[in-house]
Model the fold of this input.
Amino acid sequence: MKIEIKIDETAREPRIIILTDRITDEVERITRLIKEADTGPPADGSESPGAAPGFIAGFSEDRAVLLPTDWIVRIYSAGGKVYAQTRSGEFSLRLRLYELEERLCSRGEGFVRISNSEIINLSQAESFDLSLAGTIMVVLKNGDTAYVSRRYVSKIKRVLGI
Done:
């Protein structure tokens, strides 16, 4: 699926167009998500069952792309910039790492901060190597490794229930 955002200063309200060759479960899910976002959460305050995850705007060259949060493997800072690594590539983000932590980690989206420069998606973690002294090595499903800094080890153990 490709997502494209076009800025039109003459537009008075957002307009969403879905271009597809047929109606699929994914198209129906996205349509439902957009309708829920437009009308707000259910009146009883509950989350709708099977609700789709949130989105983060990522940038690649001159294009803004909506990244579903469940596609994000990890978010990290390098060279003064913040990046999201997804299954389909890397995107720069305009949010600061602490803003992403507030947005993703505190809302129960399955993300956890593992160091001053990295947040991982726990659903993208394959294993945790606890044999290292004072730190934890995280092997991600895409084959990358990340390291939990000493400062965050107790937090990760608490999150994992170990």
The first helix runs from residue 25 to 39. DSSP finds three helices and ten strands in the chain. Residues 39-52 have pLDDT under 50 and may be disordered.
